[in-house]
Structures are given as structure tokens and as C-alpha cells.
Amino acid sequence: MPLSRRLAAEFIGTMFLLAAVVGSGIMGVLLSQGNNGIALLANAAATAGILYVLIVIFGPISGAHFNPAVSFAMHLRGELGRRDTVAYIAIQVVGAALGVVLAHAMFGLALVQAGTHVRSGWPQWLSEAVATSGLLLTIVMGVRNRPQAVPALVASYIFAAYWFTGSTSLANPAVTLARALTSSFAGIRLVDVVGFVAAQMAGLASAVLVLTLVLPEGRTYAARLASP
Q1: pLDDT (tens digit per residue) in 138-180
Q2: Which of 7, 102, 111, 211 is the most exposed place for a label (fewest CB within 10 A)?
Q3: What does the alpha-carbon distance between residue 166 and residue 161 come to, in Å, rounded to a whole number?
Q4: pLDDT, tens digit, 9 for 90 and up, residues 11-70
Q5: Which CATH number belongs to the domain containing residue 200 in this structure?
Q6: Whether this model's pTM surpasses 0.90
């Protein structure tokens, strides 16, 4: 598939993902009458649902990464060249930011806002490392062992991780940066983004370690991660 088409799929998919994440957070708060549990349930369900749809429709075109950590993991697998990996990550960041703007527009809010949701401290960082590591293991092992189940696997994992992690599982550097552009339920302070992204990279490294231990080809991932 030409790179231009793959990038278009990554852009559109990431934009719709963020529109769903932020939009469902806004709608959940509006309808839950102050019940944050109901708002989180709505947010998690909408995110899982849109992930399933987006992976099914865009997977055959671009691989449906929508996540710089996933693109880098696919690079380590040898499925994505260095130039393509950089292009994927750049377009994911742009698509994610525009998805937040789109969500705000649909609810008649200021298009760009400063995130105010405090997300800092070692429990949050540990949560992001665990969430990202688990997501990458789900994807890599799913692609290897049962590729047709990957959409359901990823959607199920994210729905669960919304609830079992203290950070509600952003698990995506592009999503994290984009969510600093909203003061809604799904937002994060810009100052907290660096800590989250660092934790997500730690999660990626831990996923590589696990793959090295459990897969015959796992050592190639570690070798590529260590190479310049």
C-alpha cells in the first residue's frame, strides 16, 4: 500500500479516535449528573467501541496503529521502516490534535483549551508504564498468534485498562499530547505530559523485555531497540 494512503488512514483513524475519547468524556459528564463512575464507564465503552471499528476498517490499509508506541513496536518487528515510522508518528500527532478540536466543535466549546486535569506522581507513571506495556503485548502477541482477533483484543484490553490503572490508560504519546488541548473530563495538564510519555516509553521497553523472554524472535526486538 502506498505510504500516502497509509498515512491518510493513520490520520483519519487517529482523529476519529480522539474525537471519540474526548467527545464521549464530554457527553458522559453532561449526562451522568456528577457521577464520575458513570462518566468513566461511558468514556471507556466509547473508546473501546471506536477502537474495534477503526482497527477493522483501517487495519488492512495502514495496520491501524494510531499510536507512536505501536508504530515503534512495529518498527522493532521489522514491519515498518525508519522513514515510514517517523511519518506515521508525525501524522498521528497531527490527527490526534485535530480530533480534540473536532470534539470541541461538536459540543460548541472553545476549539483549543488548556488541560487542567492533574495527572502526576509515581502511581500515575507506573499505571502508564503498565498500560502501555500490556497494550503492546496484546498487539504483538495477537498479531503473531491470532491476527483476526486483534480488533477485539485491543478494544477489550483498553476497556479493562481504563478501570484497572490509576491513570485510566492513555497508553499513547500522541493521545497524551492531544489531551493536553482539552480541559474536559479526558484532559491532562501540559506539564504532566512529559512524565506520561516517559512512562509510556518505559512500558514499551518492558514489553520488549517480555517479548525477548517469551518469543523465539524476541531478541531481535531488543537488538533493534538498542541499535542507533
Answers
A1: 999 999 999 999 999 999 999 999 999 999 999 999 999 999 9
A2: 111
A3: 9
A4: 999 999 999 999 999 999 999 998 999 999 999 999 999 999 999 999 999 999 999 999
A5: 1.20.1080.10
A6: yes
Integer angstrom CA distances of residue 206 from 47, 62, 124, 145, 146: 25, 25, 17, 20, 22
Q: Please, where are the H alpha helices in the chain? A: 3-32, 36-62, 68-76, 82-106, 122-145, 150-164, 173-178, 193-214, 218-226
Tell me how far apart the alpha carbons of residues 180 and 174 are, in angstroms, rounded to a whole number: 10
Count up the domains in the chain and report the number: 1
Domain of 99, in residue numbers: 3-226
Question: Which three three-digit cell numbers place residue 106?
Answer: 461538536
Q: Within its chain, how far is the Cα of 8 from the centroid? A: 17
Contact yes or no for 56/152 (Cβ under 8 A): no
- Euclidean distance between CA atoms 91 and 95, whole angstroms: 6
